[in-house]
Amino acid sequence: MNRDRPRIARLPAGELHAVGATGLETASMVRYLVEGGREDIVLHDLSADVEAAFHAAHRLQPADHRDRSWAALTRCRDLRTGAEHLAGVGSAAAILVPVSWFLHPANDRLRAMRDRFVTYPDACFDLWPGPVAGISGSVGKTTTARFTAALAGSVFCGNDREAFSDLGALARQPAERLMAFEASNRHLWNGWDRVLDVGVLTGIALNHEPDHGSFAAYREAKYSLADRCHSFVLHAGIARAYPDAAGAAARGASYGSGGDWHLAGDTGHGPGGRTFALPGAADLPGPDRDDALAAAVAALLCGVPAAEIEARSRALADAAPRYRRTARRLAGRLVVNDSASCMPASTAALVGAMAERFVLICGGDRQRYRPGEFDALAAAVAASPHAALVCTTGPMAGHLERALCAAGFDALARCTGIPDAVDRALGVAEAAVVFSPGCGTGSLFLDKYERGESFDDAVSARTSGVPEADGAVVPDGEAAP
């Protein structure tokens, strides 16, 4: 641990500045300090419309959190935006920064001041008195982090706009309680000081490579989680897919099919003949079962009793992110909203899980397209005996269509947006409608949550008055590495 750097509970004397003040991470740190009596904070933000930027970042937080965070910002000493952004920051004794600070050229001058940074993961870890499980990966990390918190009866924090972010409440938790922290590639790039109790790497796929310069560098950022924890587990498919994962794999255990930890029915098996019951896994769609297994392993390694994990597993389905892979039936037609799928690998796994005729709606935007990144998704669609039509949308539509045609699948419809795609999909009689973008949102939506709401709104507008049946479940499938 670097004991010389500023810590949120032990800030040095002098000026305190906060960068990216409207974002969830920085605003949460500001709120903790302001509510503790520190109001002499200079705020900086790149947004021209501060209130709109704050709403976009906080809209999924509880209303009382939004109100308290906004009130804390208004009590600070100064707000500097536009041409004044970062004015005077050189004199700061400590600087609160968000995970994404390095993505903006306007923040380049901050690089020389990194020894003065207070980051959100370090703030959480410094204040949290109990064990911490850090979960990362290209696919499955949010679900695994949520499942870990659910199985441990604890708190889910980190890289999700619905995550718990009241730092004052974190500091008041009992020392035996577990934190499940979702760590993004950007958290890993920035680093943190605490050695976590457990690290989980859920899977790796082509993603965010512009942040790191290459896909290989992105993978190395993910592998670095193995060096930041006492116990480490990673999905068995990672080492099979990427030879450069061998070093990370050697520092821990694997999970999933063929792994050191694996599920047989509702029983988990681990090294040394260790077993535990996970009955709630049977109620989950196939791609989520490995996430449940990883969560159970993380909780076990952090000392949560197996009996508690078994009991809590029965409610695991309720812990899944509300915006991910929800399913319902309308007049016998399955409608799947998988709006959080920003990765082709995630959509490919869902396609492979489908056991009835379906129309896939996919597409969106990518930070930067790399040739071949949709090939595995296209192969999954072409191999499915149930794929009736693929509706493509957004800037990536052409790349998706070329990959699908090259794989031998040509039942395609280019759509102007989600409402048009829903119209096309509902026009295919009795086919399930599967919305799984496999791409980011870019400038098309505020975030994946709004994108999911857009799909739900489009379906609702076109099926008004049609009876809805609860309890639909996405068919089984195997999670991608």
What order do the helices and strands come in, and which of them pair?
Layout: E1 15-19, H1 24-35, E2 41-44, H2 50-58, H3 63-74, E3 78-80, E4 92-97, E5 117-119, H4 120-127, E6 132-136, H5 141-152, E7 155-158, H6 167-171, E8 179-182, H7 185-190, E9 196-201, H8 209-212, H9 215-223, E10 229-235, H10 236-241, H11 246-250, E11 253-255, E12 262-264, E13 267-269, E14 275-277, H12 286-301, H13 306-313, H14 316-319, E15 326-330, E16 333-337, H15 344-353, E17 358-363, H16 375-383, E18 387-393, H17 397-406, E19 412-414, H18 418-426, E20 432-435, H19 448-462, E21 468-469
Parallel strand pairs: 1-2, 1-4, 2-3, 4-5, 6-8, 6-9, 7-8, 9-10, 10-11, 16-20, 17-18, 17-20, 18-19
Antiparallel strand pairs: 12-13, 13-14, 15-16, 15-21
Helix pairs in contact: 1-3, 5-12, 15-16, 16-17, 18-19
Integer-rounded radius of gyration: 23 Å
Summed over residues and divided by their number, the pLDDT gives a mean of 89
The total beta strand count reads 21
The number of helical elements comes to: 19
Q: Could you tell me how far the N terminus lies from the C terminus, measured between alpha carbons in angstroms?
A: 32 Å
Q: Tell me the overall shape.
A: globular
Unreliable runs, pLDDT <50, ≥5 residues? 467-481
Oligomer: single chain
Q: Tell me the strand percentage band.
A: 15-25%
CATH superfamily of the largest domain: Mur-like, catalytic domain
Helix and strand content put the structural class at: alpha/beta
CATH topology label of the largest domain: UDP-N-acetylmuramoyl-L-alanine:D-glutamate ligase
CATH architecture verdict of the largest domain: 3-Layer(aba) Sandwich
Strand order of the largest sheet: 19-18-17-20-16-15-21
- CATH class call of the largest domain: Alpha Beta
Number of domains: 3
Give the helix proportion (percent range).
Answer: 25-40%
Largest sheet: 7 strands, mixed
